[in-house]
Design brief:
Blueprint: H1 2-19, H2 49-64, E1 71-72, H3 75-83, E2 86-93, E3 96-102, E4 107-111, H4 115-118, E5 127-128, H5 131-137, H6 142-149, E6 159-163, H7 168-179, E7 185-187, H8 191-202
Parallel strand pairs: 1-7, 4-5, 4-6, 6-7
Antiparallel strand pairs: 2-3
């Protein structure tokens, strides 16, 4: 009986030892240390001037590619400006030039429809620059642009007013112009359909 009681006591003692958490165990002369798994954040990488310049250019290009909507111009705002267009001489030589009627000095009203659509009519004083060639044309040399389109290439700070048939392509054209560095852009979103409707109503 005594031997059986001793064996049971020993088993109970071992069971209790197995249930003691490791963090509470202690041994004479030893100290258990649990290391933290938290890592110290690394210091930010120092960029060279060249790397910093490339980053700034990349950030600028990303900014230009963000969704963007040009400021809109209404029929009521556009109509008076088309009633008093101005004629400008384009060309580099006094004896070799042509005269183009534009909406205002330093302002282009640009119809981005295709030529077969433009034959149906245009807003007075507008020039035609189809959306299908707009991006490439804005990269042309001024003399090549003039030869191709018949009017001088707009400057980056000139005002550009885009319109099309229903406002979708003019919105895209405004975005293309902005990505090419133009800063003074207006979108006549009502475009040709609204213009015809308003003009017929006034007759």
């Amino acid at each position: 009986m005594l031997r059986t009681a001793i064996a049971r006591s020993a088993r109970a003692s071992l069971t209790c030892q197995r249930l003691v958490p490791a963090s509470r165990l202690s041994f004479p002369g030893f100290q258990i240390r649990f290391e933290s798994t938290t890592h110290t954040p690394l210091a930010p990488k120092t960029r060279t001037p060249e790397e910093q310049a490339r980053k700034e250019v990349k950030d600028h290009m990303n900014e230009l590619q963000h969704d963007w909507d040009a400021k809109e111009i209404t029929y009521a705002e556009l109509k008076p400006r088309t009633d008093s267009p101005v004629s400008v001489r384009v060309g580099f030589l006094a004896f070799l030039h042509t005269v183009v009627t534009v909406i205002q000095q330093d302002t282009y009203l640009i119809d981005v429809r295709e030529p077969d659509e433009v034959v149906q009519g245009m807003i007075p004083s507008a020039v035609n620059l189809p959306l299908s060639v707009l991006g490439n044309s804005l990269h042309l040399h001024p003399s090549a642009f003039l030869e191709k389109h018949g009017f001088e290439k707009p400057g980056k700070d000139q005002q550009l007013i885009f319109y099309c048939r229903s406002g979708k392509r003019s919105t895209t054209a405004s975005d293309v112009a902005k990505r090419n560095g133009f800063t003074n852009i207006l979108n006549y979103k009502g475009s040709w359909l609204e213009w015809v409707e308003k003009e017929n109503t006034q007759k």
